Prior knowledge:
Layout: H1 2-46
Amino acid sequence: MFKVILFFLLLYFLFRFLFRVLIPALLMRKLRKMSSEMNGGERSNASGGQKEGKVTITYKPTDNSGKDKSKEGEYVDFEEVD
């Protein structure tokens, strides 16, 4: 019985150590990685073909000439009934 209690106490302290030391270290590593990806993305965009602050809009017209008008339905004027 003493060995079982000792085993669970050791297991408890091991998990406690892992959550206090290992988990925050892994989270900090992930945060640094995300931060460097964000900063790297800004650098690659700034060194690209466009200057910072320049806005370009590309317009792609839709072809509505082939649209079937019969699927739209028909306008029906209505009157209120008292």
